[in-house]
Write a structure and sequence with these properties.
heterodimer; A: mainly beta; Alpha-Beta Plaits; 6-stranded antiparallel β-sheet; 2 helices; 12% helix; globular; B: 267 residues; mainly alpha; Endonuclease III, domain 1; 2 domains; two-stranded antiparallel sheet; 12 helices; elongated
Chain lengths: 109, 267
């Protein structure tokens, strides 16, 4: 409650998933349409933190093309886990270009 | 334009935002930025849309108490780096002990409650600053009881309400803003704590560290202007930014360091 929203959102702490448990559905923001046209349901995408200078998480095809970025509600936890060298992948679960929904989970779960 | 997609009841919905390089309002030095880049106005607008608009959170209350007296105690229990988990646990303890309906309550009773450790996030913890906070809370439950009862039905300018609260010992402008925002559901007041201040700094706004009333009011103006410029409701936007910023704590500090901005002290 150090600030203004105590009790409004669910709190973090012990209820936070471990990095291995972290799993969520999200959508791709500002997708690159040229790349997205070659993406299909069930494709596996890589999840990558661009850099510390530009805090953004991107999705990439296996050939290294950037599909777009993601900012899920779990973004803070995802960044924390990525910075601890955890690896995540995303499975494309729905696509209706330019809209694309993915399921993100730990690469070894 | 930037396009954000989400699903609502299994149907695709779209939020369209201005291009990244466009200022958030005429004459503003801050641009929308990329919605995929954390800490940009576009990022905050997109998250507001997903969490608040689509998430239906506007129907949820951020009020912590059933009376203004309870609300005041709840907000007094927070701040100064005290975790949400700790202050909420002690608020629940006050409610369990029926403190708010007791006719007489001594200073020692309040101190005893605050000094008794509670199970918080899996470990027994005692409330920090039990002595000073205990004095302010006791005053709210005794000396200020009738004053708060009268204020409960206040219908005037929220800033006057805030001023009234600031007359009570231990209630500074931030705590008074917090109580006012919660109790009156107002958009003309913002709760500027360290997390909100950092968010403003990361946007490149020269909001001063809110360590005096005048600086607080300047930072509040920056925040309200931002919320209005990106078409959000000040009260919910404040809570949203606060929640993400506390989770981004390490990353936010790292970014501030990279930008060469001095680390502000907790207020």
């Amino acid at each position: 409650m150090g600030g203004s929203g105590g009790g409004f959102f669910s709190s973090g702490g012990s209820s936070e998933p471990t990095c291995a448990e972290l799993r969520f559905r999200t959508t791709i923001i500002n997708p690159n349409l040229d790349i997205l046209q070659n993406v299909n349901i069930d494709d596996i995408l890589d999840i990558e933190l661009i850099s510390d200078e530009i805090p953004a998480v991107i999705t990439k095809t296996k050939s290294g093309d950037v599909v777009g970025s993601i900012t899920p509600s779990e973004i803070a936890r995802l960044l924390e886990c990525l910075s601890k060298n955890n690896t995540y992948t995303a499975t494309v679960v729905d696509i209706d270009s330019p809209r694309c929904e993915i399921l993100v989970k730990h690469a070894f779960s | 334009m930037q396009h954000i997609y989400a699903k609502e009841n299994n149907h695709w919905v779209t939020l369209t935002l201005p291009p990244a390089e466009e200022p958030i309002h005429n004459g503003a030095s801050v641009t929308w930025g990329d919605a995929g880049t954390i800490f940009t106005p576009a990022f905050w607008r997109a998250r507001y849309w997903m969490d608040i608009d689509l998430g239906g959170l506007t129907k949820k209350t951020y009020k912590l108490g059933h009376s203004l007296q309870e609300e005041t105690v709840a907000c007094l229990l927070g701040g100064y780096g005290i975790t949400a988990e700790s202050s909420m646990a002690y608020l629940e303890r006050f409610k369990e002990l029926d403190i708010f309906s007791k006719e007489k309550i001594s200073q020692d009773d309040i101190w005893e409650i605050l000094q008794t450790p509670l199970l918080i996030s899996g470990s027994k913890q005692r409330y920090r600053f039990w002595k000073n906070k205990g004095i302010y809370i006791h005053a709210v439950l005794t000396t200020h009881k009738n004053r708060l009862k009268k204020l409960e039905y206040f219908k005037g300018d929220p800033k006057e309400f805030r001023e009234e609260l600031m007359q009570m010992k231990g209630i500074g402008i931030k705590t008074a803003s917090w109580i006012t925002r919660n109790w009156l559901d107002t958009n003309s007041i913002a709760v500027i704590d360290i997390h909100i201040h950092r968010a403003l700094q990361l946007l490149g706004m020269n909001a001063p560290l809110p360590n005096s009333d005048s600086k607080y009011l300047q930072s509040e103006t920056y925040f309200i202007d931002l919320a209005n410029a990106i078409n959000t409701s000040v009260n919910f936007f404040d809570i949203l930014v606060w929640d993400y910023m506390r989770k981004f704590n390490g990353l936010a500090l790292k970014r501030l360091n990279q930008k060469g901005l001095a680390l502000p002290q907790i207020v």
